[in-house]
Amino acid sequence: MSVAFNAIDTDRDGILSADEIANAPTALKSLDKNNDGKISEDEVRPAGRGEGRGGDGGRGGEGGRGGGEGSSTLRVDDLIKTLMAFDANGDGKLQKSEVPERMQGLFERGDLNKDGVLSADEIRALAQAQIAASGPGEGEGEGRGGRGGRGGPEGGMMRMDPILNALDRNHDGVISAEEIANAPAALKTLDKNQDGKITQDEVRPDFGPGRGGRGR
User: Fold this and answer.
1) How far is CA 99 from CA 93, 107, 214, in A?
2) Taking the complete model, does pTM exceed 0.70, yes or no?
3) Which site among 29, 60, 94, 96 is 20 to 30 Å from 141 CA-CA?
């Protein structure tokens, strides 16, 4: 589950209540690890995607690709776990009946043998394609003077996580102090059934048609 969701869900019941949504600006400040008043991509990246191996600070500067294949593998594995959360019968595969309607695009793109089931291999291929589409993660810059740590403002956790995507209103890859202050209004856009609270089903990553997920 999203690190932002966990931070806002102070009673840990898996639901963001109206009070928790209202208090989101205070809760989100716990993610500001360097206390600079904003939340950056690397502050919300799950553990295991940290510093790269490149020179000059190890984040894809001089000395080749920092992080390399190990970091990409971690990102793919994380995404596979997210997808397999829908595996209701625990058979290691996904059937259309197990996923929400908004995720039917998975089968259009990933069900290579058109049997209506996503096998473990097909799920891994989908995850790899989604990670490739979202750009390199932390520590996966491109050699000398490469792309650095975050993979550009359009990639990474800020785009793939619906909560972070909603909070980052200008989609620059950073949740500014103003965006933190406006968090309650941004979060309410995720309340799809307008019941005043946000459930985990309402904020699962969206893997609908197309490479970009939510289509922003």
Assistant:
1) 11, 10, 16
2) no
3) 29
